[in-house]
């Protein structure tokens, strides 16, 4: 397993993880009820996590050779989905990060299974600035693209 840990400014309550091959394209997102309920937006090459703070948040990316065991009890909210990589690099960034400031992660081309995991969503203070919320993206190689489904639903209060 490889682990990458970052602290990102989640401006507009968003953090994006995507194939570097398409990172120069602006993907206009029209949020719908399903995306708001699952706290994310997914497309073939892009994952956008909705955060509960418009502030700096910790984000971890964990890469596995094969599908790992998932301890659902560790998380408040978990969504399973798929991701297609054409390049050998993924980028992780906040909405207002410049192209040069995006975090680069080596990730071989191919299909991946993904778990988007959210923790401590109810730890946010009354002003929405301080909290212990954190976000983890777990990836493993897959033979087919996984459909999006909620494994654990918990919305912040």
Describe the structure.
- By secondary structure, the protein is mainly beta.
- Helix content is 4%, strand content 46%.
- The strands form 2 sheets. Strands 1-5-10-9-6-11 form a 6-stranded mixed sheet, with no helix packed on it. It has a 5-stranded antiparallel sheet with strand order 3-4-2-7-8.
- The longest helix has 6 residues, at 33-38.
- It is globular.
- The relative contact order is 0.28.
- Biggest sheet descriptor: 6 strands, mixed
Structural class by helix and strand composition: mainly beta
DSSP summary: helix tally: 1
Strand content range: over 45%
Describe the secondary-structure layout.
Layout: E1 2-9, E2 14-19, H1 33-38, E3 40-42, E4 46-50, E5 56-64, E6 77-85, E7 89-94, E8 103-106, E9 110-119, E10 134-141, E11 149-152
Features:
globular; single chain; 157 residues; mainly beta
How do you describe this structure in short?
With 157 residues, this protein is mainly beta. It is built from 1 helix and 11 strands, in the order E-E-H-E-E-E-E-E-E-E-E-E.
């Amino acid at each position: 397993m490889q682990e990458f840990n970052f602290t990102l400014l989640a401006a507009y309550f968003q953090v994006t993880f995507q194939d570097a091959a398409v990172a120069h394209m602006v993907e206009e997102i029209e949020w719908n009820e399903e995306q708001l309920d699952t706290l994310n937006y997914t497309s073939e090459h892009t994952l956008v996590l909705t955060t509960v703070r418009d502030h700096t948040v910790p984000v971890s990316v964990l890469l596995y050779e094969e599908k790992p065991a998932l301890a659902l009890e560790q998380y408040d909210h978990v969504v399973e989905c798929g991701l297609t990589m054409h390049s050998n690099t993924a980028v992780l960034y906040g909405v207002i990060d410049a192209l040069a400031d995006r975090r680069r992660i080596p990730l071989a081309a191919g299909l991946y299974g993904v778990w988007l995991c959210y923790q401590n969503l109810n730890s946010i203070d009354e002003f929405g600035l301080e909290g212990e919320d954190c976000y983890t993206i777990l990836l493993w190689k897959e033979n087919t693209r996984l459909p999006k489904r909620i494994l654990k639903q918990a919305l912040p209060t």
